[in-house]
Each structure stands twice: as structure tokens, then as C-alpha cells.
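Quick log. Single chain, no ligands specified.
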Amino acid sequence: MFFIISSVSSFSQQITLLDKSNNKPIKEAYIFSTSNPGGVISNKDGEFSLANFKKDEYVSVQHIHYEVFRFKPNELDGSVLYLIEKKNSLPTVYYNHPLRYNSDEDDEAGQIEKINREIVQIENPPTSADMLQNTGSILVQKSQAGGGSPIMRGFEANKLLLVVDGVRMNNAIYRSGHLQNSITIDNAVLQETEIIFGPSSALYGSDALGGVIHFKTINPEITLKDSLYFDGSSYLRYNTNNRSMAAHFDFSTGKNKWALLSSITANQFGDVIMGKNQVFDRDEGFGLHPDVVVQNLAGQDTMVTNLQPQIQANSGYSQVDILEKFVYQSNDHLKYTVNLQYSNSSTINRYDKLTEYSDDTLKFAEWYYGPQQRIFGQFKADFSKNPNNPNNKFYHQGVFSVAYQKIDEDRISRLYDSPFREHQNEDVNVFSLNLDFNRILPGNRILFYGMEAQHNYVKSTAFAEHIGGGSDANIQTRYPDLSNYLTSGIYLEYKQKFNNGLSLSTGIRYSFIYANSQFKDTSFLKLPFNQVNLITSAPSGNIGLVYRPDSSTILKSQLTTAFRAPNIDDYGKVFEKKGVTVVPNDQLKPEYAIGGELSAERSFANNFIQLGAVGYTTYLHNAMVQRDFNLNGQDSIFYNGEMTKIQAIVNTDNAIIYGTSANLKINFSKALNFEYTYTFTKGTDLSANTPLEHIPPQFGKIAFTYKNEKLNTSLFSFYNFRKNEADYTPGGDNIDLTPREEGTPPWWTLNYRISYTFYDRIMLQFAVDNILDVQYRQFSSGISAPGRNFMIGLKADF
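-> predicted structure:
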């Protein structure tokens, strides 16, 4: 699809926007007028052109952090405009953007949090999973060091939707347990990460039950100059705990029509050393790694003593991330972007599997993921209405995107003393189409609409490799041999602001899902069917209100509906874990959710104290859970050399999740502040009257921060309350990996970081994590968190 838009200039002048307090350029300001509501956006140097604006009408300049400024081009004195930073001012008009690509959290009825590039650069987290954990609003589970599965409002894995640059990352084999794919996103190239809490199916479709995490990578900037510019940045980082090294380099160039960005990040992580001080539990052997398996030259496995059991052996890995972006802007109303991303790791050991015992011997000699490779390619066209074409009533701005993703997910394992190394290989190819529009209407109203389609082609193979050179053998695949999975939908969203401080937002989406999976080889697992066909569709919607009685208070309420269709992992997976074999279920149905939330934010004493709280609940119907199951009339099966209980993903009648989160910020001065976050979640399977899985203990973050133009320093603490055994799903959430299998002990850590900027371009960073060297393990995790760690980093811009 191509959009051809002509442009005729009626007035031409280049303007620069500067911050009045520090003379720094202001990028991403929205400049518009009555005759040109599509407007333009200021570039990285704060520049924009007045071409296509009438010289005798008022032009408005709007930015989320600055007061609205209005002027007439023919009355300008010079080419520089100074904007004043906002002081609790109320928004006046809508920004012009396709809804799913940008949002102002103050305008949204639901809870939204944003992590901008500046925060990431200062915190310098090892992975994007750690970046999410640092917010204090998301808890991250880890089965191994090379992982990180975010939990939001009691939902995890395929019940959360991950998005990169407007394209769904969730594919047909995103699993229901713990999902480690967030680490394939390089946080060094993120411009912003938008976190939308709660059901969001009206905007994003299936899977967004617990929320959406939208990763947005940086874009090279197009200038208004004919000469080339050159920008770049680099950093080096070293952590003492796992002796990890990280290096990053990015470079951008461009001029008035085009721009190019290249980036590469390399990470080398060693084995994680757990903390030595068991302050919060009394299980002296908990978390220690006393034994490891080594293989001698004759191919025999031997279990030997780990002389340093605090070192979690075989937990290290490496990863390389590459980004290439090219932008071409043919005129003020049409811009093309080619976006290429590549992420690849070494093999990553499944640490919790390598510490699993069978009687007195380690169960596995080998258990690792093959290189975690992600290839992403996107072509995108941003287009806007030409003010010289008044007959266009269809849209003011839109985005057309086609994308391709290739994901390799391989599992390799070998039982202790077994001559066979088992390979389960999954190849996933994903093709995506997105089309998003907005239409600005009179009376401070805006309409968003669009469509999305994504097709997954999944091929699953498996074989047993004889490590002694003998013949290979066939084994059971993890998923159906061949699968096609299509998810699609159309949506409509309407927003309006009223003069009394009230804003309304409402939307609806209709989604359609089709799946076909074929089981060609059923010799290992006798199934009463050889294929699964799924055709389902569902509407979902939302309605929300935002009320601002004054500039210091925001009241919000929202009601949402959502759904999630079974994917291939839900209905077609075969795997064994700790005496339980999960089998396919061709009768699985979609799960539906109704959610509601109320929130309030208030600032006191001229913004000295800022206080906010959110209460939320989600009611699930046909919730998908893992339960005992009968296959061919049997409740157990001989699998992987042992008799195991049969379970499957099934629909339970009803379930409910509810909770609250709160935040407090005290601004002692412009430079010094205190922040506190708290989250509580409770979930119950109403049909079985048992707790739901993935419900974390109460958790949060406390921080004192001081910052000025050059110095940024913070003393902060992460904390988790206890989660008792009675609050766990029976046998779920890796309760066997907790001390004495009694639940998650409480814990807290003390941490410190400092960074100082020299010459506005060189930043020196230092941090001490887990200062007290506390031994603890995140909820449901299979590996202990790092003990005391010193980090030193050096960042330079040029």
C-alpha cells in the first residue's frame, strides 16, 4: 500500500524551540494550526519549518512538559521561540498521534508508567527485564540468569502483551508459565518503554489481560539542513558479582531528507554469585549449589562437589544486539522507516533444571536453551493530512506497517548418564500488518481507528542425538509438527475533553483468531485426535473517565473487557516436569475478563507532596489453568522413563484477581526527592477455591534521589513481603524451590548508585547493589539473586 501526498508551500521559515531556563533545544514538540491540524514535529535540534502554515493565522506549539505557546508567523521577531516548563497546568488540546504508538499518561483513564531514555542511561540495567524490575511496579521472575519474566497485576507470560515499535512480539508459542523473551530487547536503544497496566484488548487484541509492555526504539533524526550531521554514543560497563562486561556503540547521521542509525551492544555475563547473609530464612542450605556434573573423556558423567557453593555454576551466558534504522522523508507529510533488529545469545543453561535431583543424584547432565535468536524487520510509512487538500476527510495522521519476525527456540537436554542428548527445536515465522489512523474533530475530540493482522507459521521437530556416535532416534516434539496461527482485529477509539476538566475515552475492538495444528507422529503419545482446529472471535471494549477538578488533582475510573484465545502452547504442548506430564487438549476455549479500576492522584503544598493510589479488579471467565487431566481414560502415563501424572491446560469456571498499588513522592527541593511504591495482589480460582498462580507477594521500592545538571545519585531499596505456602496454588509457582517448600520469605535490599556528567558528554557511573549481601530469591524464581555487586560504567556522547 502506498500513500502519495503532494505538498505546496505557502510560507517558509525555519524556527528553533529552546527551553527558556537552560537554552537547550526542545524536540518532539507538536506544532499545528486550524488549517493544518496534522502539523509538524520539532526535530532533535528543536527545529521545525513553517512551510504549509498560513502566515496570518495563529500557530500553536504544544509539548507534554511545557506551556502551550501561540504565535502568528508574520509577527515573529527572529527565528527562536522560548518555551516555559509546565507547573501543574491543565492540558488544553489533544496531541496528534496514532493511539497505539504514543500516549499521554495524564490523559489515559488507566494506569500507565513510562521509562524514558534518560532513566535507562542513568540506571544502566544489564537487561530490559532488569529495567522493568527497577520501576518498583513490576516484579520479574527468573528461571535462569539469562531470563526475566515480568508479572503485572497477577498475570505473567502469554497473558501479558509485549510490543516492539508497534508490532506484537507475542507469538503462537509464548508459554503460560514463565517467559524470558524480554531480554532480547536491547535497552540501550530504547527511546521509551510504555507500561499499560490492566486489560487492554480493545487496543491491542488477544493476550493483553494483565497489561502491555511497549518497547519503542530510538529513531534517527532528520534535520532541516542540507549538511550532514554526526551523532553517537557509547558505554562500557563492568559488574563484579558475575564478572560481566558490556559494551555499546551507536552512530547516527543524516540531513534534510534522510537519516541513518546503527547500533551494537555486546554483553558477557559470568556465573551469578548469591548473597552470603541468610537474614530472612533459616534454611542454611537453601539456594546453595553443592554439586555439578562433569563429563570425562570417555563420555561418562560424574557428579563432583562445587567447592564454592555460593557460585551458581553454569549460569553465565553472552548476548549481542544489533539495530539498523533508515528514515526517508519525502515531504512534510510522508516519512518511510526501515527498522532491522537482531538479537542472538550463546546457549543459556536452564539453571533450575541443572539443580534438580533424582534421589541423591542430579537429574540432568545437560539442560540448556539453544541460542536465543530474534530477527525483526519492519517497513513503516508515517503519513499526515496535507493542509492544501481539504477534501481529505478520512484521517489527519496514520501509520502503515508491515513486519517480519523469526524466532528460534530450541531446548536441549540429557539425563544424567544417558547416552542420548534430546533436541526439541521450534522455528517460528511471524508476518504482521498494522494500519492506524486518527481524525481530529471539532470541539476537542479525536477519533482513532485501525486494523491489525498477524500470521504465525510454526514448525516443531525433535530428535535424540547419540553422544557416543551411535544412531540418532526420534522423540516426541514439544508442539504439533506444523501449525498455522492467525490473529486479527479492527478497533475504534473515541476521546473527548470537556471544558469542566472532564475527559472521556471509549473504544471497541473485534478480534478474529484462526488456528490449525497437525500431529503427524503420535507414536510416542497416543492422542484421540491428530489435529486441532480453532476458530473464534470476540468483541472487547473499554470506557473511562478522567476528571481534573483543579490543577493538583486527577481522578480516574475505567471499565474494560478483554479476552485471550488459546495459542499453540496452551492447547498443543507436551512436556514433563517433576513427575507431571502436560498433554494437548483440543477442547480448550478462550478466556474472558472484565476489569475495573479507580485511581486518584493529588499534589499538596505547591507540589511538595505527590500522592497516588489505584484499586483494580479483574474477573475471569473460562480462565485457562493447568490441572489434573485424563487421557484415553488414564490419569497417569509412562513418559521419559518414569510414571508421571497427567495434566493439561483446561478452562476453569471463574476466577478473580484484585489489588491495589500506591505511590508517594516528596520533593524536598528541585534536586532532592523521596519516592515510595507499593503493590498488593490477590487471586482466587473461584471454582476450586484455591489461589491462582503468578500472584506475587506484596512488593515495592523506596528511594532517595538527588540530581542536578551534572550529578545524579540515589539510595534505594527493593522489598518483598512474605508469601506463605497457603497462598500458593497447590504444587504451583515453583514452591518446591522455596526454603523447606514453605513459601517465599520476606526480603529487602539496600542499593546505591551515582553518576556524574563531565563536559555535558561524558558520564561516569558507579553503583553498589545489595550492599548487605543478602541471600534471597525472587518469587517463583529458580535461581537466587546476585549478592553484593559493584558496577562501574563510562558513557560518552559525541
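Confidence is low (pLDDT under 50) at residues 1-12, 88-92.
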